[in-house]
Amino acid sequence: MYVVTWVVGLTGGIGSGKSAAADLFAAHGAAVIDTDAIAHDLTKPGGGAMPLIRAGFGDGVAAADGALDRAAMRAVVFADPPARKRLEAILHPLIREESERQLAAAATPYAILVVPLLIEAGDYRKRVNRIAVVDCAEATQIARVMSRSGLARPEIERILAAQATRAQRLAAADDVIDNDGELAALAPQIERLHGNYLALAQRLG
Predict the structure, then answer these.
(1) Mean of all residue pLDDT scores within the chain
(2) Where do the structural domains in the chain lie, given as residue ranges?
(3) Model confidence at 16: pLDDT above 90
(4) Among 31-40, 77-86, 135-144, 170-179, where is mean pLDDT lowest?
(5) Domain spanning 7-30+108-204 has what CATH number?
């Protein structure tokens, strides 16, 4: 059994294709810990964060089934910028705790830690050995998000404006994964990086 000590932080803007890249790493046998998936689990009906969120923001941000009403929460955050910090103060410690638990349980030479806001959240940079950025043009991001979510363009643009810029992500990247074209073009890039990460992890181990 391996003890994971080598972690790759995988990031990219909304609609960049982080999940597709993470799925390909998982297909190669890497442990994948997705902070977005953890956040969804924490905010589902009966999720561990929901009592704190309801206490902090009121019942109006909860759907009928008790899950987080994401549209209502987005409206609150965009109307009241400090509200984002209050939400992050609730979610981030819980996400960090669960991601560390999953990393400790991983039995692979290296792990992929998927963090959409890795560049923005400085503490995550300290928790990874390398940063891989899934990159594409902003127009591609907008088209993908509109297609999959039904969100209007102005709302997507507000989300993009709240994230790190493409230039900031690329400046922080150790590895860049180009996902501006067909999905099939991802596979050879991930295969190459998987080989590199295995070699680096084994060298450090």
Answers:
(1) 91
(2) 7-30+108-204
(3) yes
(4) 77-86
(5) 3.40.50.300
